[in-house]
Amino acid sequence: MAEKIVIIGGGAGGASTAARLRRLDETAEIIILERGEAISYATCGLPYYIGGVIEEREELFVQTPTAMKERFQIDVRVRHEALQIIRERKEVVIRDHGEGRTYTENYDKLVLSPGAYPVVPNIPGTDLKNVFALRSITDNDRIKDYITNHPIRSAVVAGGGFIGVEIAENLTRLNLEVTLVEMTDQVLSNLDYEMAAFIHHELRAKGVTLLLNTGVAAITEEDNRLNVALSTGQYLPTDIVILAVGIRPNVKLAADADLKLGVTGAILVNDRLQTSDPSIYAVGDAVQIRDLVSGRDNWLPLAGPANRQGRILADILSGRAERYNGAQRTAIAKIFDLTAASTGLNEKTLKKWGIPYLSCITHSNSHAGYYPGASPLSIKLLFAPEDGKLLGAQVVGYEGADKRIDVLAAALRFEKTVFDLAELELAYAPPFSSAKDPVNMAGYVAGNILNGDMAVITWDRLLEQPQDNAVILDVREPDEFRLGAIPGAVNIPLDQLRKRLDELPREREIVTYCYVGLRSYIAARILMQRGWKVKNLSGGYKTLSAVMKDRALQAAKPTHAETVGV
Ligand code: FAD
Predict the structure, then answer these.
(1) CA 37 centroid distance within chain
(2) Of all atoms in ligand 1, which is nearest to the CA of residue 252?
(3) Model confidence at 562: pLDDT above 50
(4) HEC-encoded secondary structure of 33-57
(5) Is the Cβ atom of 253 under 6 angstroms away from ligand 1?
(6) Residue 9 in contact with ligand 1 by CB distance below 6 A
(7) Quick check: helix, strand or coil at residue 468?
(8) Distance between CA atoms of residues 350 and 309, nearest Å
(9) Parallel, antiparallel or unpaired: strands 235-238 and 225-230
(10) How confident is residue 1, by pLDDT bands cut at 50, 70 and 90?
């Protein structure tokens, strides 16, 4: 007999489960319950609709209930909210908001894909009419409506995660004066701080006032204007506030039905995406999954994993032997002209989890330097000290960051090493790349570290553990040195090094650096072969100075808040 599958949630996970299930099984009865007005809309596109990049609201709707019914014979019930799961009777209690009635629906298999909900901080003023969170199309419409129909000039965005920075960019596009307030010392927590420093500079350069290490303490309203009290004691007058301070898995239905939750607080599922009740499955932002790099339980709320889980679950529900192995948190964001992307674990997480690692930072050109339009591209690799297995990667750049992260994500997925990155034969012609692609270059540098061809020192070690007995050797040209250098550094340009070796004391360690780390690597090789102990500054002065400038700006009082501070 045909099975009856009830799916709660018509977003990425629920809709993809339903569509594939129908492709595999013409006989199943499939019902989607969606409490909102729409199914399968482009949540990830919402910030761009608010900013006017996506002009027509209709473009956000990937599927409509009617089209889903017609093409897939799926019974899509919008404005139908699942209120309760009665497991013993295999029933769901449903509120039909359209008709104002409550009814029950039985199931053979139940799929939960209720997503996540935005965290609303426990501070006064979050219920004011010009304070918004952005999760759903309804939130989106409220924000768009308010912005369109009120003469607003400024906005405060609380939270520097993906949604916060995307909203900050899109509100800036609308010529609003935007302040981004973030509790920690960096935006985009998937990146390590030194990579995020490039994003901070881009945000500031594009006119966003960035308040790091700052929280929103309270919001008050007077005459339609808001006053945002900050944890620093300052106040920001503004017209609207967007709260983007994080999300939590939506587990209420599951918890009320006594389904097991995992250590992360998300719904516990096995590798068949089955909850602690064998008739109930769960996918998407609401579930706990395995982190592929560490094997640990984790919560990785992203659209790619939700869609893949949905597809795999459809296979499982139709009797196939599929399993879901986990996710590696590949993510990407556009920050004005810059792209920031990552895959796998970052250094902060590796440290926290006590996983041994080595790292390197390389700055290459996005394509051949002699072909017009090349721009800098920074790659940070994290890899296992014993065999070079890739543990994580971060890419920040203006052009081509997306394709580099995808190459790195594929390598990480298939458990490749940094030596494999050096081996990759990637597409090259001058407008697109260099004969040694930035990914190859990152692999070469990491390989050099592992082979012992070059020892490195990272920017944080250099800043935090002064190399008292070492000579800091800057091998850039004197003009570059004059524009800014590490305090106490000696300048011997690379091309003069062989002739001026007697200026370097034999008994002292040498820390070499240049702008990106390439000339200083050559210098390191010259010195190492003559018996010096040398470390090369990973990521060069470019990384170190980005960090030092960012820290100085963080320490200085931000202009906008300062003018209104009390
Ligand atoms: P959702 O797509 O959120 O769907 C859950 C659905 O369940 C919702 O429609 C909800 O109304 C419904 N529901 C909840 N409870 C009930 C109930 N009791 N009864 C009936 N229906 C219910 N991810 C990326 O990878 N890249 C991006 O660029 C990106 N950008 C984003 C931008 C924004 C503004 C937001 C909010 C998210 C973004 N995401 C992005 C995250 C991505 O949208 C989610 O990871 C993905 O949608 C998760 O799919 P899901 O099915 O678990 O949840």
Answers:
(1) 28
(2) 18
(3) no
(4) EECCCCCCECHHHHHHHHCCCCCCH
(5) yes
(6) yes
(7) coil
(8) 26
(9) antiparallel
(10) confident
* Phi and psi torsions of 449, nearest 5°: -65, -45
The two counts, helices (H) then strands (E), for the chain are 17, 31
pLDDT in tens, 345-374: 999 999 999 999 999 999 999 999 999 999
> What number of CA atoms fall less than 13 Å from residue 160's CA on the CB side?
30
Tokens of 182: 């973030």
Q: Evaluate: CB of 159 within 6 angstroms of ligand 1.
A: no
CB 46 within 8 A of CB 60: yes
pLDDT tens digits for 150-185?
Answer: 999 999 999 999 999 999 999 999 999 999 999 999
Secondary structure (3-state) at 242: strand
Give one DSSP letter per residue of 370-416, joined into a string.
TSTT--EEEEEEEE-TTT-BEEEEEEEESSSHHHHHHHHHHHHHTT-
Rounded to the nearest 10 degrees, the angle between the axes of helix 65-72 and helix 12-24 is 20
Q: Which positions are catalytic?
A: 44
Distance 418 CA to ligand 1 centre (A): 35
Percent of the chain with pLDDT over 70: 98
Q: Is 566 a residue whose pLDDT tops 80?
A: no
306 lines ligand 1 (CB under 6 A): yes
Three-state SS at 224: coil
**One-letter amino acid identity for 389?**
K
Q: What is the dihedral of CA 557, 560, 563, 566, to 10 degrees?
A: -70
Exposed, middle or buried by CB within 10 Å (0-12, 13-18, 19+), for 415? exposed
| pLDDT of 531 higher than 80 | yes
Ligand 1 centroid, distance to 12 Cα (angstroms):
6
Give 114 Cα–ligand 1 centroid separation in angstroms.
8
- Please provide the distance, in angstroms rounded to a whole number, between the alpha carbons at the two ends of the chain: 71
List of residues 6+ apart from 491 with CB closer than 8 A: 474, 475, 476, 478, 481, 485
255 C-alpha to center of ligand 1: Å?
19
Please identify which residue in the block is written with the tokens 């040195």: 481
Q: Is 39 in the pocket of ligand 1 (CB under 6 A)?
A: no
Residue 224 confidence class, pLDDT cut points 50, 70, 90: confident
